[in-house]
User: What shape does this take?
Amino acid sequence: MDPEPVPEIREVLPRFGKLYVEEIPEVVMCKPKIMPLKSFSLQKTEKIQHETQEIVRTQEKIMKTYYEAVCQGVSSTVTQEFNSEVF
Assistant: This one.
């Protein structure tokens, strides 16, 4: 079976009058892009900062218990325990 022949379309230009083309701009919708509220580097920095704060708090608690023990005149066993925890 042979495909049907396509008729040729001829271009017709007016000889008199004005020729114009009107283009109407249209809004093109695209998928919304989900942007993170915080960048990856900011999240990483905050995580490191949080971990550092936890380490400092732990060290402060250890120092507080050591100084309280020293101020109360507890024996040298507390000092030995302190040294084993810190170092």
Notes: The helical segments are 40-71, 76-86. The two ends are 93 Å apart (CA to CA). The first helix runs from residue 40 to 71. The chain has a mean pLDDT of 79.
